[in-house]
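Its record is retained below.
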Amino acid sequence: MITELTTHPQVKIRPAESQDAQRIAILCEQLGYSATQQQIQQRLAQIQHNVAHVVYVATLANDYVIGWAHAHTCDLIIMPTQAILFGLVVDEDHRHSGIGRLLMEHIEQWASLLGCQGVLFRSNVKRKEAHSFYEKIGYTNIKQSLTFYKTLI
């Protein structure tokens, strides 16, 4: 796992830790997903030792979390092994300063080290600003689809 690669002088990228849960939960809200600090702590604990998952946080010098990214490697029948980005968010007060790019560089390097041939993700059609960001850093929209969900509990 890459532990530090940042070129941004005031921002450090590192693996997420349990004590980051409160800020991760707040940032989830900014992304449009509700989660409590306890839920985030439980989820981090579930994936902490799973090498197929990575959660990176971007922090300021005082270790204040201002962004996170979560990815998972996925072996597929239909295409070579991919890293699936499950989420990326930078605090609204720190956007447009290169932090999202740094987080994505870490995800890409982690995926490459694990033998992934690409990074794949879904982005809500309403997130036009996010789409522009991803295109600027070299991603291409390859498909438009619907997402279906069924509650099992």
